[in-house]
Amino acid sequence: MIGISAVRVSLVCGLLLTLAHGQEARPANAAAVAEVAAGQRAEALASWWGFDPADATASLQAAIDSGVPKLTVDQVGAPWTVRPIKLASNQEIVFAAGVEVRAKEGEFKGTNDSLFTAANRENIVLRGYGATLRMRRADYDNPELYKKAEWRHCLAIRSCTNVQVLGLTLAESGGDGIYLGTATRGVTNKDIVIRDVVCDRNYRQGISVITAENLLIANTIMRGTGGTAPQAGIDFEPNHPGERLVNVVMRDCLSEDNNGCGYVLYLRPLNATSEPISVRFENCRAANNRGSAFALTTGDSPELAVDGTVEIVGGTFASPKPAVLNVSKPANRSLLTLTDCTLVAGEAPPIAFASGQHSDQPVGGVTFANCILVDPVARTPMIYIDRGGGVPLAGIGGTLVLERDGERVPVELTKERLAEWLPVTAMRAIPRVSLAGKSFRPLGEPTPAQCAFGHAWLRRTGAYLLHAQAGDEVSLGLRHAQVGRYQGNPAPVVVTGPDGAAVQQGEIPFQGEGTITFRAPASGVYRVAVDARQNRMALIASTHPACLAGEGGPVRLIHSAGDYYFHVPAGTREFAVRVAGEGMGEAVRAELLDSAGAVVQEADDVVQTHQFEILRETPPAAGEVWCLRLSRPATIAWEDHAVDLRGIPPLLAPSPEAILVPAE
Q1: How far apart are CA 85 and CA 121, in angstroms?
Q2: Which residues in 450-545 belong to E strands, given as ranges?
Q3: CA distance readout (Å), 475 to 405, 518, 520, 661
Q4: Alpha-carbon span 98 to 73, nearest angstrom
Q5: H runs (alpha helix) in 25-179
Q6: CA 320 to chain centre
Q7: Model confidence at 584, in pLDDT bands (50, 70, 90)?
Q8: H-run or E-run covering 216
Q9: In whole angstroms, what is the distance from residue 619 CA to residue 153 CA?
Q10: Are 215 and 243 in contact (CB under 8 A)?
């Protein structure tokens, strides 16, 4: 009777499991597993280690960990539902046609949890024609269920060598379809092949390439990316100068229907010390992406920009709204050539060049060879967004074939033609005033309300200078807010004293508020550095006068309407206030008010740098307080903008009383 009861219990449990999951669990094949362990089999089926339709993690991980040279994830009549899986070296995994490996619902709570991860591994083949690796993108975007993150990838390859990914569809991740990054700092991915792959509806990118050498991506589709920026089909974006993009080839690939750009090379983290890049695109296509079809950005100067080559050969690149080709880099670094390709314009001029806000060297370095530019609109085919202010263009040449209404006209890109198409705004060269080694004092005796600077939202990083007397108790209230859908972490705040030594440090929670307090050890100016990364920060309360500091560059702001006061020292004959939007799609309105409160100059829909210049035959005998008033532009989107003071101390205050002026 005992044996009959056990059988009945087993049958009932099996029936309940089948009813609950639509597929009966399979027991392990102990004999076959033993033969694999003994080295008697070079090939195996994953189901030999068993299968549980509710959670097949243990079986699949054990099959991979067995070390069998060739493992087939076989069709078992239901998805392989798993938690994060780690890959092994020296193994080929074949996902049978129709197989789906699916992320388990309610799991992947860690912000770096990926469906499959290979870290410091070698000699891996993932073959899956007709198979899918699928996550649960909508779940990860729900803040009630998951901590915000952008690194829950379908496949993360980190510091690996000799990896092939063939035929798979990688869908609906909480990050990228495929991520090529590092597990060990300084160890790049080498000899990687991605072929016949589809990256579909992923959260951040179809593919992200952080570092790679000898990378081939062929016949691959990247589509439907949407969730968190950059939302590109593919983004080449190193994190450190020591990372590499060497001998990288994309061939016969398609990037379409992404919320960002089609192909992005964002190379600012690399610099002149980095290994020169070599990236080539052969017969690739971009269609119906919301951003540019192709975007290349490096550092603003030769010292900050990586060298090397980027080649586009053949293919068709179309953008329905923004520029098809968007380039922001020094003319003599990371040279770009386009040969025998077609650019199809939409609403915007098809080719855009831009200088960065810190640019001081010519922008360009692009050669066109027999490229067809299809533009139905009779307009100049190139535009220049001069955010640096008076930065020239150089190194742009070759031939374009302009096509309109079926008629083609070859145009040689001579200096005269480019000067006509891309005029550079002439600006008086007024240098910045350095704050280094200078001492300041408050102009007045402001109340705490007059010291608060809540309308000034610093974008990413910035610094405040404040003045305190020895022994003062200083209290600063800061608010850390989100920009768009960027993920966030607590933002560090570091306070240094008049002697440069650290006085206090702390963190402001993401989408929250916090207070930094300290006792001033000496009288003088204290520097408060904040880092909101991709997000924004505001000084909402202060016991002491504090000014935004433009230390060697513009003050970067976002959605920061209001009045910004600054000091014009006695004897100042000329000075300038520069304002700028952020590229073609983000602008700002600005008014310059003199010491009497009268508007003396104004500009609206400012996209590229606009300079308010003040030149006086008779300089003022006493210092003056002027004001810059920022507001929403009339017709262009309002988001990021910047302010750059020239010829006067680059300090912006929330009120006249809170201004810091040079100490006598």
Answers
A1: 14
A2: 453-468, 473-481, 491-496, 502-508, 512-519, 524-542
A3: 66, 7, 11, 21
A4: 10
A5: 30-37, 57-65, 137-140
A6: 22
A7: low
A8: strand 212-218
A9: 61
A10: no
Distance (Å, rounded) from C-alpha 303 to C-alpha 274? Answer: 11
pLDDT tens-digit readout, 270-313: 999 999 999 999 999 999 999 999 999 999 888 889 999 999 99
**pLDDT digits 0-9 by tens, 525-582:** 999 999 998 899 999 999 999 999 998 789 999 999 999 999 999 999 999 999 998 8
Overall average pLDDT of the 209-236 stretch: 97
In single-letter form, the type of residue at position 661 comes to V
Exposed, middle or buried by CB within 10 Å (0-12, 13-18, 19+), for 524? middle
Q: What is the pTM of this model?
A: 0.83
| Distance separating alpha carbons of residues 293 and 260, to the nearest angstrom | 9
- Write the CB contacts of 66 (distance below 8 Å, at least 6 apart in sequence): 33, 36, 37, 44, 49
Predicted local distance difference test score (pLDDT) of residue 534? 86
> Residue 556 phi/psi, 5° resolution?
-95, 125
Q: With contact defined as beta carbons under 8 Å apart, do 309 and 245 qualify?
A: no
Q: Which residues pair with 26 in a beta bridge?
A: 51
Identify the pLDDT of residue 583. Answer: 67
Instruction: Report the alpha-carbon distance of residue 134 to residue 23 in Å, rounded.
Output: 19
Residue whose entry in the numeric block shows the structure tokens 């020169």:
276
Residue-by-residue DSSP string for 222-266: EE---SSTT-EEEEE--SSTT--EEEEEEES-EEES-SS-SEEEE
Q: What does the block give as tokens for 510?
A: 């993401």
**Average pLDDT over the chain, rounded to an integer:** 93
Question: What tokens does 16 get?
Answer: 């309940």
- CB neighbourhood size of 634 (10 A): 10
Output the DSSP codes for 531-574. Answer: EEEEEEEEEEEESS-EEEE-SSSPEEEES--EEEEEEE-TT--E
Tokens matching residue 540: 């909402």
Task: Provide the b/e sequence for 474-490 (b: ≥16 CB within 10 Å).
Answer: bebbbbbbebebbbbee
